[in-house]
User: Which sequence fits this backbone?
């Protein structure tokens, strides 16, 4: 009896992807596009072990909804995902041995579709197991561990994606560091300005509408436009005051990026600070005042803790947004992972694009999950 | 009910009217501003972007955003409705997971990844924008429909309304402000992403900006940036007034 | 009009309604009452199939409710719930017109009907017509809910603890209102409540449920004077059984026709309790009784109140 239509849909999607789309693509050199290699061919060359967990995933939709079966499916999904990653790496190694040294094997759409289908099945099972948010994050990390181990161990070294990484290691690491630097550097003025603004808007009703109207206008302007609009004034400034040019405030690069990113980050942060303070129950404040606390004491001992969960939630949204916007900043020369992505885009090299995109996504996911964990901890503390 | 307009004041003081007029004037009259840019940037050989008229660029930009948003709205609202009906409840977790994953992707990344699969031009931009635009719409449709009080639904069904009738007459109108807020977010993000779509070969208002950045022509950048910024503000104002109109009954 | 024949409903392994059988005749004001968890709301919702029964047959106007198209069935019944469930984005007028417009009545007919109902529920006096639910008081909202339920002139009115969320004064006013509407329209009403006072006041017949089973069916007086078991006795109320009886019976039932008494008369429709109260205040052992027009029709003696 079919018990789970979602799992059936995902399994069907995975099978369709594996059958119709290429698993990897093998190109004779960097410039030409790859010859597709089907899943079946890859399996034939030593991937039969995968079939075990794959079989479990295929019948998952018919299994009873009891804990032992659910855990079995979770385990199968984790093994399967690690398995196909390993398989891709092993096949690439095989092709490297038997083919030309400048030939490249890259991950193709079939691989991504199958991986995504398995990952979504895993997420669905974790959802059904009804774990707490913290447990779910730990489970997610656990699922990713085998794949991380494979990457680190070098078993995937012959895949073009990792070859690009190996070739550009220094550039990549510099870009990664730069990206993180930009996001962190943005958070300082954002917090310094956003928190007081949010508090002001919450305390003084007259300020609320104007503050959020202005911030909303800023948020509406497309990021590339704001970056562009800041270039000229900052360049003029640098020309007029050469000293500024020396510490890096010029037209291109860091200064317009951080200024623009701060402006974009102010709205989500201030809005959440306001909402968080709004949310503190009026009777709690009244009780505190009745006890004789000063407003400073009320803020530090009462409001802060009750407002923390919503504030952290806003911080989460802000940081994830900043990570994404920093990618665009590469267009005005700020560097960061966006530079690698755009380079790949202009050279029509998907591997380079992925080299830029994957770390950004992984960073965003990590921050998102980490902040959600913090929020749930803060919520429990406040309760 | 008297014909009260959403918002205070007489019709001609409506900010939407003024910003809209400014936008149209700027786009149509850009060539006339050549002397201004020449004066501001005397060191530039070409102070005005003339490869396409700004009218053409604006139209292309609006078309791209409109087309992708239309797809996002149709698919997104349908998905949101499906997932909140008994038939689709099972798929709720899956949809939420996909939305959560999508939120962590910068819109630019979706654009960049579409190219190797589809190639350069309008199509990857359209598909990327439509895909990325789904997220806020689905999320808001689900939230809006869930917020309809259960008592109202029960009363509606008890009176003899069919499920579809209830959806059409009660649920969707009540959820409309939240859904429209999602569409608004989606469209504004799309306007921004469409500006970057010129890096994948689509011709939009971002084309002069990107060209200007590559060729160190600040005038190009300024022209493109001001026009697209104004477009975004006009559209946002339009949504704001539309949303206020939807919620007129709450104030009454 | 409505009959339950050995009806059962099972939720998560337990019988919420257990082989329930009873009938509601046309024109009756039937009250379903019981402690929480007794299955009274579930029973009501099985009539208009918001919940579907697991066993047994429910008949409405002779037909098995399962055999009729569910939406057509519901449009023949009015349904009022505790929280009102008014459509917040529709005016009072449009809310009331909800079912008639579903039934595609002509605009003129709908307008006429809305007007009549606004008047029946005394909403026209308060200028509610063009307002939105959030602008009305709780009592007004419930009255609109009742008007909406009556709009398509249904055969039966189903009410699920409709006055439970209102303050005592408004609740009492609405109880008087619904009693008046019942008297004026003669509709069959099935009313769920957990408040015994309300049941005794309004019902022509009371159905007592406990853990999904029928305990006793009877008129308020039957329940007060002949409770089937201790549960009923306790539930109906141990304290002041005499007072409760007084509150139910009317003066008209015990008046001695033709005789005249001094002092202002009391209405024939007043309760014995009100009559006793008046006698005590006046230090009299008799009181004149008048008909609705004010004409004297007889006298009520204190001795007759305590007579069997």
Assistant:
């Amino acid at each position: 009896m079919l018990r789970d239509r979602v799992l059936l849909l995902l399994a069907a999607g995975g099978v369709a992807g594996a059958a119709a789309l290429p698993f990897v693509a093998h190109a004779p050199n960097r410039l030409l596009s790859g010859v597709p290699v089907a899943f079946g061919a890859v399996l034939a060359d030593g991937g039969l072990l995968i079939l075990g967990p794959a079989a479990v995933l295929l019948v998952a939709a018919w299994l009873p909804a009891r804990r032992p079966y659910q855990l079995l499916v979770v385990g199968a999904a984790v093994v399967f995902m690690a398995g196909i990653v390993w398989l891709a790496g092993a096949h690439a190694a095989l092709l490297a041995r038997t083919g030309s040294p400048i030939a490249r094997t890259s991950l193709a759409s079939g691989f991504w579709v199958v991986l995504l289908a398995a990952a979504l099945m895993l997420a669905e099972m974790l959802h059904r197991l009804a774990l707490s948010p913290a447990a779910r994050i730990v489970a997610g990390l656990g699922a990713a561990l085998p794949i991380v181990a494979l990457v680190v161990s070098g078993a995937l070294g012959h895949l073009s994606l990792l070859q690009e990484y190996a070739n550009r290691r220094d550039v990549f690491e510099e870009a990664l560091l730069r990206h993180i630097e930009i996001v962190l550097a943005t958070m300082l003025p954002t917090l310094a300005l956003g928190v007081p603004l949010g508090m002001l808007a919450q305390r003084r009703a007259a300020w609320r509408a104007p503050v959020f109207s202005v911030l909303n206008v800023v948020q509406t302007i497309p990021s590339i436009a704001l970056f562009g609009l800041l270039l000229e004034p900052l360049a003029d400034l640098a020309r007029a005051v050469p000293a500024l040019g020396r510490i890096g405030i010029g037209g291109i690069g860091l200064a317009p990026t951080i200024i623009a990113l701060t402006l974009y980050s102010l709205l989500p942060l201030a809005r959440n600070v306001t909402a968080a303070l709004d949310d503190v129950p009026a009777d709690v404040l009244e009780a505190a005042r009745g006890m004789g606390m000063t407003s400073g004491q009320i803020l530090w001992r009462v409001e802060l803790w009750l407002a923390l969960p919503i504030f952290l939630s806003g911080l989460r949204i802000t940081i994830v947004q900043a990570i994404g916007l920093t990618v665009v900043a590469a267009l005005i020369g700020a560097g960061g992972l966006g530079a690698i992505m755009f380079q790949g885009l202009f050279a029509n090299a998907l591997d380079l694009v992925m080299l830029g995109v994957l770390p950004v996504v992984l960073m965003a996911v990590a921050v998102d999950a980490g902040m959600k964990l913090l929020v749930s901890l803060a919520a429990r503390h406040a309760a | 009910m008297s014909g009260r307009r959403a918002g205070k004041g007489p019709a001609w003081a409506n900010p939407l009217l003024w910003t809209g007029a400014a936008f149209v004037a700027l786009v149509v009259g850009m060539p006339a501003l050549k002397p201004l840019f020449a004066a501001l940037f005397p060191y530039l050989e070409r102070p005005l972007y003339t490869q396409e008229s700004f009218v053409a660029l604006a139209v292309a930009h609006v078309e791209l955003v409109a087309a992708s948003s239309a797809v996002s709205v149709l698919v997104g609202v349908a998905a949101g409705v499906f997932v909140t009906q008994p038939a689709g409840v099972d798929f709720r977790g899956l949809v939420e997971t996909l939305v959560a994953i999508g939120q962590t992707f910068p819109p630019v990344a979706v654009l960049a990844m579409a190219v190797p699969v589809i190639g350069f031009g309008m199509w990857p931009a359209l598909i990327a924008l439509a895909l990325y635009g789904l997220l806020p719409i689905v999320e808001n449709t689900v939230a809006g429909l869930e917020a309809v009080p259960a008592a109202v639904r029960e009363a509606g069904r008890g009176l003899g309304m069919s499920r579809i009738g209830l959806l059409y007459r009660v649920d969707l109108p009540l959820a409309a402000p939240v859904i429209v807020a999602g569409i608004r977010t989606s469209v504004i993000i799309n306007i921004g992403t469409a500006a970057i779509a010129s890096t994948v070969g689509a011709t939009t208002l971002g084309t002069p900006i990107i060209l200007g950045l590559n060729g160190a022509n600040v005038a190009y950048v300024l022209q493109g940036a001001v026009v697209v910024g104004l477009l975004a503000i006009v559209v946002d104002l339009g949504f704001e007034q539309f949303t206020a109109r939807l919620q007129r009954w709450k104030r009454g | 009009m409505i009959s339950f024949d050995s009806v059962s409903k099972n939720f998560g392994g337990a019988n919420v309604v257990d082989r329930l059988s009873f009938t509601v005749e046309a024109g009756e004001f039937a009250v379903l009452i019981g402690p929480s968890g007794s299955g009274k709301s579930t029973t009501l919702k099985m009539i208009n199939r918001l919940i579907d029964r697991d066993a047994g047959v429910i008949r409405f106007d002779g037909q098995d409710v399962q055999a009729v198209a569910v939406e057509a069935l519901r449009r023949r019944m009015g349904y009022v719930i505790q929280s009102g469930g008014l459509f917040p984005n529709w005016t009072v007028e449009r809310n009331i017109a909800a079912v008639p417009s579903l039934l595609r009545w002509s605009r003129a007919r709908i307008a006429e009907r809305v007007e009549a109902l606004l008047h029946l529920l005394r909403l026209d006096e308060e200028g509610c017509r063009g307002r939105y639910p959030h602008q009305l008081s709780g009592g007004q909202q419930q009255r609109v809910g009742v008007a909406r339920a009556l709009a398509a002139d249904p055969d039966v009115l189903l009410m699920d603890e409709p006055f439970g969320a209102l303050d005592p004064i408004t609740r009492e006013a609405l109880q008087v209102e619904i009693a008046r509407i019942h008297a004026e329209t003669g509709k069959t009403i099935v009313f769920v409540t957990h408040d015994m006072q309300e049941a005794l006041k309004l019902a022509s017949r009371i159905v007592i449920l406990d853990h999904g089973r029928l305990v006793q069916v009877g008129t308020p007086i039957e329940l007060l004077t002949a409770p089937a078991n201790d549960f009923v006795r306790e539930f109906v109320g141990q304290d002041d059984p005499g007072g409760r009886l007084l509150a139910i019976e009317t003066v008209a039932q015990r008046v001695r026709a033709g005789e005249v008494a001094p002092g202002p008369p009391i209405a024939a429709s007043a309760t014995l309790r009100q009559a006793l109260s008046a006698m005590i205040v006046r230090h009299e052992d008799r009181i004149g009784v008048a008909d609705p027009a004010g004409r004297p029709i007889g006298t009520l003696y204190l001795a007759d109140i305590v007579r069997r």
